[in-house]
């Protein structure tokens, strides 16, 4: 079969011929119908050799957003049937710890200890004609949802949904939510905020095209993500601070911008993959302001997101690529020229 693999440190991924995998006991093989490309993949491929080899194998098939048709069952699997259309829940856990018992395998207490990794972020993922899923509990029914149009919801929908849920009690009538970065995750976050809350939603980005996309999917306002943003927000809302900031970029510049928008009880939520310093403390930040750094989301939350898609309240702007053209998807992702999310359809 063909697979898109990261083969050499610092070089673009390659489409290669590899053996078709066979499911072992308890495993499920999928014939992949769609796989999403994500900035997390670019982050991993941007690591230097020491950082990469400490955490990831070579070669590694990319893709932690996956959907497919159940193709073959390992011994003992009865929970799914051949022919089922499913989405893959990506943050795999042990299934037995306190967090996993709640469906929050994204916060599994033993994953690192047991060497459990997400597909495409530690072992072979979905950018292939077939993939192996270690347990049927990682499969969520897609029903009649189109795989290519919805596969990105397994991360680009689930991650912002989980981040927003933590701030829902504050996002009441009269509140303001700011989305920094209106790309793959951010444009879905705008839709989720409109579907789940009565808040005024403001998108910030450095790309005029992404600001236009944000307005198309429901943002009340869209401004440049620079030093002019605080005053633009003040002019639009009449206030210099906001209720919640969802930062889907996650670098120092966006964290600093978010800090300028914080007020009493503001949530600053750092979602993007990166590292930033944020000043906190009674004398260093507004009273009861919080900073959170959530990760991905739970299995029940993925079911919620797919239910929102079924109802037509959330969708993903996608550009599709064949498996042979999948390296171009990552090139476009790196260049920042995608409108929404890149999806590979093997």
Question: Would you give an account of this structure?
Answer:
The chain is globular. The model has no long low-confidence stretch (mean pLDDT 96). Helices cover 27% and strands 22% of the residues. By secondary structure, it is α/β, with parallel strands linked by helices. The protein has twelve helices and 16 strands. The strands form three sheets. Strands 3, 5, 6, 7, 8, 15 and 16 form a seven-stranded mixed β-sheet that branches. Strands 11-10-9-12-13-14 form a six-stranded parallel β-sheet, sandwiched between helices. A three-stranded antiparallel β-sheet has the order 2-1-4, with no helix packed on it. The protein folds into two domains: 2-155 and 297-344, Quinone Oxidoreductase, Chain A, domain 1, CATH 3.90.180.10; 158-292, Rossmann fold (3-Layer(aba) Sandwich), CATH 3.40.50.
How would you summarize what this structure contains?
This protein has helices at 39-45, 49-53, 98-101, 111-114, 147-150, 158-165, 186-196, 208-216, 229-237, 252-261, 299-310, 326-335; strands at residues 2-6, 14-17, 28-37, 60-61, 65-73, 85-88, 130-133, 139-141, 176-180, 200-205, 221-224, 244-247, 267-270, 290-292, 318-321, 341-344. With 346 residues, it is an alpha/beta fold.
């Amino acid at each position: 079969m063909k697979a898109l693999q990261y083969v050499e440190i610092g070089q673009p991924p390659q489409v290669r011929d590899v053996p078709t995998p066979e499911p072992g006991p308890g495993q499920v093989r999928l014939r992949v119908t769609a796989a999403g490309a994500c900035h997390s993949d670019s982050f991993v491929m941007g690591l230097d050799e020491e950082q990469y080899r400490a955490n990831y194998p070579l070669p590694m098939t990319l893709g932690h957003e996956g959907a497919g048709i159940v193709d073959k069952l390992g011994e003992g699997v009865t929970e799914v049937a051949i022919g089922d259309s499913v989405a893959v829940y990506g943050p795999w856990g042990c299934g037995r710890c306190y967090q996993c018992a709640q469906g929050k395998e994204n916060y599994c207490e033993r994953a690192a200890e047991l060497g459990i990794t997400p597909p495409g972020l530690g072992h072979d993922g979905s950018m292939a004609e077939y993939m192996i899923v270690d347990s049927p509990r990682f499969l969520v029914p897609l029903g009649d949802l189109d795989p290519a149009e919805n596969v990105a919801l397994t991360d680009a929908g689930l991650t912002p949904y989980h981040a927003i849920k933590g701030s829902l009690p504050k996002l009441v009538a009269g509140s303001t939510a700011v989305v920094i970065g209106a790309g793959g995750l951010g444009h879905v976050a705008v839709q989720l905020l409109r579907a789940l809350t009565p808040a005024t939603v403001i998108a910030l980005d450095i790309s005029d095209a992404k600001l236009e996309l944000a307005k198309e999917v429901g943002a009340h306002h869209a401004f440049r993500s620079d030093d002019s943003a605080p005053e633009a927000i003040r002019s639009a809302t009449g206030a210099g601070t906001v209720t919640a900031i969802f930062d889907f970029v996650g670098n120092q510049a966006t964290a600093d911008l978010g800090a300028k928008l914080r007020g009493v009880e503001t949530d600053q939520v750092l979602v993007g993959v990166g590292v930033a310093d944020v000043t906190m403390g009674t004398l260093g930040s507004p009273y009861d302001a919080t900073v959170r750094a959530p990760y991905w989301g739970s299995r029940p939350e993925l079911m919620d997101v797919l239910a929102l898609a079924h109802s037509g309240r959330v969708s993903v702007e996608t550009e599709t690529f064949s498996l042979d053209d999948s390296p171009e998807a990552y090139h476009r992702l790196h260049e920042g020229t995608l409108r929404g999310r890149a999806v590979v359809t093997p």
